[in-house]
User: Fold this.
Amino acid sequence: MIPTFKQSTLILGLLMIAAPWAQAQSWPEKPIKLLAPSTAGGPPDVYARALADNLAKALGQPVIVENMPAAGGMIAAQTILRAPADGYTLLVNTAGMMTITPNANHKASYKGADFTQICQGVEAALVLAGHPSLGAKNFNELSQWLKAQKTPPTYSSYSSGSPAHFLGYQLSEAQKIEMTHVPYKSSPQQVTDMIGGVAPLGFVQIATASPHIKAGKLVAYATTAEQRTPQLPDVPTVAEVGLPQLTTTVWFGLSGPKNLPAAITKRLTEAHQKIASSPDFQARMSAASMSVTQDVCGDKFLTKMNQETERWARIVKATGFVADN
Assistant:
């Protein structure tokens, strides 16, 4: 019997609905690209490569990391916005990329809800550190040194528009002094110049700085999490030195394009949660001075982003900072 026009339309509609579902069920059938918004060896890249190794085992396809460090992660984020929602292009997101860049760079034109937010993966405090030549052995001595300078002292960050950048602004505000920001393009570059005394003071990612702190090449003054970090247990928190408003962590996680099929999102979420519970993955992250996050996925992850976006929006506005890329 030949189907009527209405029946044909219904059949076509059902096929259109079924096609993405069937595609999602067979996913993945080819290698997956994972964009990492940092240079090779930077903390987001360390997380990306550990995640890629474990996802490849869980999904049965290669997961290839592609580094895209430009513009505070904005280029990587915009690449994902344009990618097909088929699960073959994924993104390592960062706190700066998702919560600061949209406030600081008018070219970003995105917000957390414009992606499929899968899971937060890891987080870490930053550390306020300086070169031993400053002569300050603790935060009180650093505060005295800062206020004694006749010209505005400098502070460095691993990226313009990053949490490290705006923590420096909050530090100068709390100390009631003017400070000059010296931005770098990566955490390794920042630390190299700190060790060389070129830019002797800054907020640094612990993963990059802690080996040099332990070796005596840098002095740690305070860390930015709510609790002392296991990597630097003798270093007080910013709250302990009287600067609770500087409390923050940087985090990295996994995102996909908006409207990623539910079946793919579910599989990625389950895989990520299983990876986060793996002793091997936890050991790799601990060795890189990062703490693994458990069960901050989907809407819970997006809610956290939105809350942090509001915080940084106020600070970005107060500084008058506008990204120039």
